[in-house]
Amino acid sequence: MTLHPTALISPEAELADDVVVGPFAVIEGPVKLAAGVTIGGHVWICGDTTVGEGTSVGWGSVIGANPQDLGFDPALRSGVHIGARNVIREYVTIHRSSREGGHTTLGEGNYLMTGVHLGHDSQLGDANVIANNVMFGGHVHLGNRAFLGGGGGYHQFLHIGDLAMVQGNAVVSQDVPPYCVAFGKNQLAGLNTVGLRRAGFDAAARAELKMAYSLLFGSALPLSKALEAATTLVWSPAARLLLDAVAKPSRKGVIARG
Question: Is 18 a catalytic site residue?
Answer without folding.
Answer: no
